[in-house]
Amino acid sequence: MLAFFGSLLVSATIAVGASAQQRVEVTFEQALAMASRAAPDLAVARARESIATADVGAAGLHPNPSAFVGTSTQTARLSAGVSVPLYLLGQRGASMDASRAELQTVRVESAITLSEVRTACAHAFVSLWLAQRAAEARHDAAEIAARLDRSVQGRIEVGNAPEIEGLRSNAEKLRAEADAQEAEQLVAAAGSDLSRWIAAPVGDVLRARGDPPIPDATLPLSALLAKAADSPAARRDDYDARAAEARAARERALVRPALSLGLSVDTLDPTLPVANYHATLGIDVPLFNQRGPLIDRETASAGAARARAHSTRARITAELVAAWRMFTATHARRKALAEGVVPAAEKAAVAIEESYALGRATLVAVLDAERARIDARVSLIEARAANANAWIETQSAMGWP
């Protein structure tokens, strides 16, 4: 009895879990929009921007004044005063400029993160699209194999085919069914990968709707290179150099003398008829700390950032050229498969299957033709996915203009 109720509880749990799952179809544009809005990596980047923004305000804070109270036994019974640090020689402005330069660097890094998120999301969408189309092709192959197996079994029953052909057709049917089941699992795995980038609920079953966009032609390579030179990844090291220069300027400003204004009063002094007021101006004289090593370090950091900027632009140029040429190559392959190979394979498979029905072709020829047809369809799907991925890499090198 306990086992019976236990099985009912497990069945109910499974049913509830299955009903909680929701099938969600997204297009390529919707996936990119969702990733640009809700990707976890972007939340981290925005948090860094908030910190850098707060640092700008912190750099502009004025120092607190110092107050004191004292007494003495022979003169004033009460002495009180306040000392106020004064940054009048540009120290505060230089600190704020350095923090603003750091904020610009963080913002361009956020733009790079956004580009990386869009690229990863786009590749994940293409992977899901590829898995779905491959699964459809494998299911079609399984249906064709099952139909062919039924035809062979019918021929065996009437004595028009040897039993060995039944074994071959049944084995081909089982193989096609196994391929279809594997392809279906790959669809689920690809959907899970995409859900990471668009922050979809765990229970949702993601499916790609529509095809990934692929242009028939692109801009000339020179125009693409001009856009890539102004991409966030290419400009990041430029901002790093400016931030280092701003930090060096801040260090130079901190070498300037710091002033402090002091005001105090002595009262309740029996030797004086009235209260005695004091005013002092202090100067922090930079004799032992000229901040030279700190200035040299920031100057060297600026030089290193410029060297990185040159290296980064060279890398981006190479990546863009490679992606553009890969796009051109995969575009030609996709076109050849779509216009020539796949139609020919389809016609050949139909013709050989008809010949087998009339007893003019062998079962081996039919199986080979069906494999060739499915392989051609899958090759076309893979070529389209490769073409789409090459275009994604081209856009990524340009910073998704």
Question: Helix and strand layout, with pairings?
Answer:
Elements: H1 2-20, E1 22-26, H2 28-38, H3 40-59, E2 66-70, E3 78-86, H4 91-157, H5 163-198, E4 204-208, H6 221-229, H7 232-255, E5 258-267, E6 276-284, H8 292-357, H9 363-397
Parallel strand pairs: 1-4
Antiparallel strand pairs: 2-3, 3-5, 5-6
Helix pairs in contact: 2-4, 3-4, 4-5, 4-7, 4-9, 6-8, 7-8, 8-9
Describe the structure in your own words.
The chain has one domain: Up-down Bundle (Outer membrane efflux proteins (OEP)), CATH 1.20.1600. Helices cover 72% and strands 11% of the residues. With 401 residues, the chain is an alpha+beta fold. It is elongated, with a radius of gyration of 37 Å. A hairpin with a 7-residue loop joins strand 2 and strand 3. Strands 2-3-5-6 form a four-stranded antiparallel β-sheet, with no helix packed on it.
**What structural category characterises the helix and strand content?**
alpha+beta
Can you give the mean pLDDT? 87
Q: Could you name the ranges where pLDDT drops below 50 across 5 or more consecutive residues?
A: 1-19
Estimate nothing, just give the exact number of structural domains. 1
- CATH architecture group name: Up-down Bundle
The CATH topology label is Outer membrane efflux proteins (OEP)
Quickly count the helices. 9
